[in-house]
Automatic annotation (TrEMBL):
The chain crosses the membrane at residues 64-85, 303-327. GO terms for cellular component: cell surface; chloride channel complex; plasma membrane. GO terms for molecular function: chloride channel activity. It comes from Alligator mississippiensis. It comes from the Eukaryota. This is Proton-activated chloride channel. It catalyses: chloride(in) = chloride(out). Keywords: Cell membrane, Chloride, Chloride channel, Ion channel, Ion transport, Membrane, Transmembrane, Transmembrane helix, Transport. It is found in: Cell membrane. Belongs to the proton-activated chloride channel family. It holds the Pfam family TMEM206. Coiled coil: none annotated. It is a multi-pass membrane protein. Residues 1-33 are annotated as: Disordered.
Amino acid sequence: MLHREGSASYQELNEDVEQGTENSASLETRKEEEENIGSIILPDGESGTSSPSVPFIKSCLKNVFAVILLFIYLLLMAVAVFLVYQTSVDFREKLKHPVMSVSYKEVSLYDAPGIAFYPGKAQLLSCKHHYYDQIPPLVNLGQPGEIECTTQKISYADPFTNQTMKYALIVQGPRDVRKRELVFLQFHLNETDQDFSAIDYLLFSSFQEFLSSPEKANFMKDCESSYSSWKFSGGFRTWVKMSLVKTKEEDGSETVEFKQETSVVNYIDKRPKPGSDQLFFVVFEWKDPLIQTVQDIVTANPWNMIALLCGIFLALFKAADFAKLSIKWMIKIRKRHLKRQSQAMNRIT
């Protein structure tokens, strides 16, 4: 009988120990579930009692930074597109409006220009070459003197009316600009029925081209059509300083133009018996040894445009690739988060 009572008490004690072990295991399981529940985001109105875990905070920060970077790269893409548009607009504007470029070339000898005089009834008395701006005193005024210049006379039809004939006296101009070579000419006009007396002249680029031209009349007609003409008056000494301007056209051709600076000095007639005739004095000299060249330059460089566009498109592709990877990474993080949330909900249920 004592043996029965001892076995019964031992069985009761064993049952109590097993029940305590089961209670502790269930308690640990409940704590793990509570921790899992606290580490997930519940929908609105179902907030957990425990605070967010550190991994969740890091994940949120990563998502925020990824979104910020995505917006930055989208902004850069917008700026790149604007730069492409603005660059193309500037390129077209530069093509339409080229920039004028002026350059100077220094020479010691010019190609001797041609000076075409239209004296009318006036007569050439003398023509000489002098140097260093030194003109000796005049002698035998009104009388024919020495003609040391190379001259030619020519007649041709007026290029504008083509009905009247024009008489021209062609004189070779100065060459040596270093020695200040000048050409001094004197004309004489006996009487005139006009109120004002003047002699017309024009300058063309090369006297040698005139000499070598087989059609000198047509050559002079072309010169008169292309160049401007000027006048110098009687009773004065007109000093003409010339400068040469070359202009390069878009088709590659080149035009020549003369610029002049003129100074006029009154002539004091010291003849014993000055009559009603008129004396004309004119001097031609180069102003400086610089030939001015004018041309239009297109500042739009297509290679710079291509390089800029390549860099912009490369930035666009890199930005699009980064945005694509960022979106994939955000989707992956979201799926992982939803998976953990569903697992936790499954444990709860």
